[in-house]
């Protein structure tokens, strides 16, 4: 199964330079036009680390993640992905870099005309790989997120929780080094939230770097005994390391 | 050609890569139809060009082969000048043969206008010398100069006076035919660009998602390019086939008129076969251009 860090692992490569992060933000500021939403934020995601990102609605969590996978170029500051300066990358390099970052988008972002299984296999197709030869991996992945029976359904026919699990499956299909999840438990009941959390912890144990944006403090608390997670909070346009109050 | 190979590879390539863009039935059929209609028109423009070309050729050939020298001279000098003209023609390169027309022949020429009873003998008619040219032809200007020196009453009529405008008109027609083909091609490129742009705009979300999951621009562009190239090729193939049938079954054969000569001959028939690949080529570049322009605006 492809959930092992087999493809272009930044972890082994980072071994020569242990302190280097897979995603590094250096004094990043961003504004959508009227005033800074983020101001001089710096962060280094070390390989294999597990982070939560929290903060009130509208604080800029999604914006922060978008900067991390290069959907947004920040107004100021430097972004390095796997050691490469984002501003120096051409469009093809950005595309290749994104294949190493699995993203669970807050709104999932599926292609509504394709059945679930094709949506999950889409990153393979886009990377020039043959989804047919990966059929076993895809099936296993569907089992893992409990969606095997829904493989042929179109995304609009899925429940919120099913969509989020499917998004997780798509995020990991390329065996990425990093997984960024934006409110991955936003639409699901508590049991399902825990299951999704379990899946992400499982991925972390395989060596993946994980960053989860969530405003669900219960989720963060229930993760504490299971994984050595750090909690970041966006407050007053800054990134803070949350302490024992959680 | 590198471009042609790319198009073939594209059309043969992985069909699943094309499915990442949702099907767009209506634009598809519209593109196909327009491409077909354009190809149909292009075949006719081509037929027009070829016919005009053949016509110009036939006219110049048929008319260039004969000429006449008309001698108007006072009664006493007619014989001497006729002999002088014949002598000049005998030594002119490009003249195969020359002979004076008999009175009977001249009468036959005039009969349609004056009736059979015209007393030709009593009229001060000019003398006519008919000459046939060899394949190389005669240098008419040089011959004129020599005739003016040797026989001042002799006038060379090589039919160029009325042949030239006809040939020029036919040549112009041929040029216009090719220009029309060029315009048809340009119109098709414009139309496919419009259709591709509308398809790209309608699929902005799809393009965004594809970029976010790590698709390169060329992968996304290919999905669109493949589709439009294929439609253009299919449409043009159908349009070309129909137009070729229509040209083949145009009535009239053998007659010398212009309309009955409209059509292809021999190897001409191969030319329309170039239209479908040409349409595919135009569609390929038009869509590719449109796609990369749109992709520039997506992160
Ligand atoms: N494309 C955009 N253009 C302008 N403003 C934007 C844009 N995207 C987000 N914003 C604004 O930026 C602020 C932060 O948005 P963001 O989505 O990052 O918040 P968030 O922390 O993820 O919130 P939530 O918890 O509700 O998901 C919000 O006020 C939002 O309205
Ligand atoms: Mg958000």
From TrEMBL, chain A:
Annotated protein name in UniProt: Cell division transport system ATP-binding protein
Keyword Ribosomal protein: no
Pfam family, one: ABC_tran
SMART domains for this protein: AAA
GO biological process: cell division
Entry superkingdom: Bacteria
Organism listed in the record: Rhodovulum bhavnagarense
SUPFAM superfamilies per UniProt: P-loop containing nucleoside triphosphate hydrolases
Gene3D superfamilies on file: P-loop containing nucleotide triphosphate hydrolases (3.40.50.300)
UniProtKB/TrEMBL annotation, chain B:
Record's keyword terms, sorted: Cell cycle, Cell division, Membrane, Transmembrane, Transmembrane helix
Gene Ontology biological-process annotations: cell division
The keyword Membrane belongs to this UniProt entry's keyword annotation: yes
GO cellular component, one term: cell division site
Coiled-coil intervals, chain numbering: none
InterPro entries (alphabetical): FtsX (IPR004513)
Transmembrane segments: 33-56, 176-200, 232-250, 270-291
Protein name as it appears in the record: Cell division transport system permease protein
Species of the source: Rhodovulum bhavnagarense
């Amino acid at each position: 199964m492809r959930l092992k860090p087999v493809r272009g692992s930044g972890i082994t490569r980072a071994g020569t330079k242990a302190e280097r992060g897979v995603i590094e933000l250096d004094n990043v500021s961003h504004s959508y036009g009227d005033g800074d939403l983020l101001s001089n934020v710096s962060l280094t995601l070390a390989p294999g680390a597990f982070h939560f990102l929290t903060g009130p609605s509208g604080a800029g969590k999604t914006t922060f993640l978008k900067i991390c996978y290069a959907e947004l170029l920040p107004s100021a500051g430097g972004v390095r992905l796997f050691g490469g300066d984002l501003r120096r990358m051409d469009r093809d390099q950005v595309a290749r870099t994104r294949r190493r970052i699995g993203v669970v988008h807050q709104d999932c972002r599926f292609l509504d005309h394709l059945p679930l299984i094709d949506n999950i296999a889409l990153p393979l197709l886009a990377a020039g790989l043959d989804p047919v030869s990966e059929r076993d991996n895809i099936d296993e992945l569907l089992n893992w997120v409990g969606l095997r029976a829904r493989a042929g359904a179109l995304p609009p026919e899925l429940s919120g929780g099913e969509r989020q699990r499917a998004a997780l499956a798509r995020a990991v299909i390329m065996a990425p080094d990093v997984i960024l999840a934006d409110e991955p438990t936003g639409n699901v009941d508590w049991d399902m939230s825990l299951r999704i959390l379990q899946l992400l912890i499982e991925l972390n144990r395989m060596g993946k770097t994980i960053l989860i944006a969530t405003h669900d403090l219960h989720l963060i608390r229930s993760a504490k005994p299971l994984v050595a997670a750090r909690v970041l909070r966006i407050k007053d346009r800054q990134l803070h390391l949350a302490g024992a109050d959680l | 050609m590198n471009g042609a190979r790319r198009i073939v590879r594209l059309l043969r390539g992985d069909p699943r890569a094309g499915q990442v863009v949702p099907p767009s039935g209506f634009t598809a059929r519209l593109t196909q139809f327009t491409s077909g209609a354009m190809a149909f028109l292009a075949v006719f423009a081509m037929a027009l060009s070829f016919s005009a070309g053949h016509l110009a050729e036939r006219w110049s050939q048929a008319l260039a082969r004969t000429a006449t020298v008309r001698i108007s001279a006072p009664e006493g000098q007619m014989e001497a000048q006729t002999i002088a003209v014949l002598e000049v023609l005998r030594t002119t390169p490009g003249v195969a043969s020359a002979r004076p027309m008999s009175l009977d022949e001249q009468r036959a020429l005039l009969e349609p206008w004056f009736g059979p009873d015209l007393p030709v003998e009593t009229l001060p008619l000019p003398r006519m010398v008919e000459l046939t040219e060899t394949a190389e032809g005669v240098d008419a200007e040089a011959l004129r100069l020599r005739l003016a020196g040797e026989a001042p009453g002799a006038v060379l009529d090589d039919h160029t006076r009325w042949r030239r405008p006809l040939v020029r008109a036919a040549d112009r027609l041929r040029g216009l035919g090719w220009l029309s083909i060029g315009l048809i091609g340009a119109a098709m490129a414009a139309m496919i660009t419009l259709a591709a742009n509308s398809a790209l705009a309608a699929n902005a979300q799809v393009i965004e998602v594809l970029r976010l999951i790590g698709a390169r621009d060329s992968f996304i562009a290919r999905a669109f390019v493949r589709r439009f190239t294929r439609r253009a090729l299919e449409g043009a193939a159908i349009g070309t086939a129909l137009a070729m049938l229509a040209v083949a079954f145009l009535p009239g054969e053998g007659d010398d008129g212009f309309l009955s000569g409209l059509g292809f001959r021999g190897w001409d028939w191969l030319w329309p076969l170039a239209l479908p690949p040409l349409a595919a080529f135009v569609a390929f570049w038009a869509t590719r251009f449109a796609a990369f322009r749109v992709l520039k605006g997506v992160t």
